[in-house]
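Z., the sequence and structure:
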Amino acid sequence: MLNILYPISFGVSLLGLILWFYYQNQPAKSKLCSTAFLGGFLVYAMTLAFADAEFTTKLSVLFRDLMVLGIVSQTFGFIRKKQAAFWSLLAVGYIFFHFFYFNFLTESFAKATSNSISTEQIEYDQEGELLLEISNGKELSSIQSILDKYNLSAERAFDPFWKDDTDLDDYFVVDVPAKHSAAISDIMNELNNSGHVDWVEPNEKITLDDPGISEGSYSNAKRNYGVNDPSINKLWGFDAMEVDKLYDLLKDVKPKRKARVYILDTGVDAKHEDIKANYKSLSATYDKDGMGHGTHCAGIAGAVSNNGVGIASFGNNNNFVEITSISVLNSFGGGTQRTIIEGIIKAADNGADVISMSLGGPSNSVRQKGYQNAIEYANKKGAIVLAAAGNSNKNAKDYSPANTPGIITVSAIDTALNRASFSNFVQDVKMGVAAPGVAIYSTIPNNKYAFFNGTSMATPYVAGLVGVMKAIKPSLTTKEAYEMLNRTGKKTNSTKETGKLIAPFEVMKELVD
C-alpha cells in the first residue's frame, strides 16, 4: 500500500504547490491549493517515515524529492504570469508525470524498501524463493497475471491459530521456475507495484555457522553448588554467573507454574539421560537430532539438575522449566526463513513461554517483515523470543532474526569476560545481552556430552534464565525481562559491544523481592 501512496501523495503535493503559486493573488483558491499541498505532503512524509528502509536511504529519497519540488515550483512560479506557457507546461508536466515519473517513483520506492541489499547476495530456497503478503481483502487471483507471466506457483505459507491477531495468514510462498531465476528482482518489483501486494521478501536459506567444537574444561572448584551433577565443574560459566548464589535463593522459591522453553533448532534427543525428565514432546518428529546442535542448546537451557548425571541448568530442580523442541533446521543445519517463521508460530500456538533460536544469517532489517510479524504474534501470545547475535565478528544489526524488533539478542563472551572473537556485537540492536559462549559443555545425542563454541550456546543460557523468571512471574513481558537483565547484569570487558552479562542471582533476587 505504501508504494502506491508514496507517488500519489508526492504528485498531489507537487500539483498543490504549483497551483498555490499560480493563485497566490486569489485567497480562496490559494487556500484550497495550499491545503492540497500540505495534506499531500503530510501523507508523503508519513509514507516515507513508515517505510521499511534504512534511515540514510530515507534521507536520500527525501533530498531528491525536495529538490524536484523546489525546481519545479520555481520554474512554474517564474512563468505564472504567462498563462499560455504556464498551462501548456502544466499539461506536458502532467503527461510526463502520469506516464513516466509516477512509475519511476514507484519503482525507486519499491527498490529502496525491498531490495536495499543486492539480490545477488541472497541464497534463495529453491522450493519457494519468495514470501509475499497479499493485501487485506485481496485474493491470490488478483495477481494471477503476474503468476502466469513467469509461470509462478504459490501456496499459503503460514497457518496461525489466532488469525484475527496477525496478517501472517495472508502470506504466500512463491516458487520461481529455474528459467526465470534471473528475473527475481523484476518479479519482486512487479508484485510490489501491482497494488494487490503489501510486501515481498526473499525466502532465504539459513545455514548454521557456529565456530564448532571446543576442547578443554574449566574447574569451578572454588564454588559449592549443592547439587550432585558430576560434570558441573566443567561449566565455567556457572562460576562467572555465580549460580551457587542462585541455587541458594531458589531453595525458598516456589514457582507459580513450570515455564516451557521452546528450542527451535535441529531437533532434540528427547531420550537423553540429562534432558528427558525436563522434556515435553510436541511431536515425535522433533524428538531426535541428527546433528547435535539442538540437543546441545537444550541441555544448556534445561538440563536436569541434581539428578546424579551430567550437567545442570539454572533451575535447581525440575519445577521451574521444561524443554520442548521444534525442528526448523535439518540434520545438516540448514533451513529457510519460512521454516523458522513456521516454528515461531507453532511454538506460540502451543503455549511457549520462551522461544530460543540459535540460528540466523546475514540479512537486512529492511526486508524482514515476515520475521517481525511472527515475533509480534509470539509476543502477543506471551512468549519471550531470543536469538543468537551471530558468529561473524560483525554488527548484529545486519543479521536476522537477531535484528528483528521484539527479540532479545544474545552475544557470546569468553572465559576472560571479553567478547568472543567470533561473536557479533550488539550495540546497534535494541535489546542486547551477553552470556558465556566459548568452551560450553552440554548434552549431545546418545547420552553424550561435548564442548561447543558459539552465540548459539550463549542464547539458551539466557533462554533458560528467562524461563525460570517466567515460572515465577508468568505475566513477564519481553520489555520487562530485558530491562531486568540489563539493570542487574554484570559489566564485561567490552560491555558496549556485548551488552551486560546476565547475572542470574541478581535478577532473580529483584524478581522475588
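The chain has three domains: 2-114, 119-203, 212-512. Residues 2-114 form one domain.

Let me know what you think.
H.
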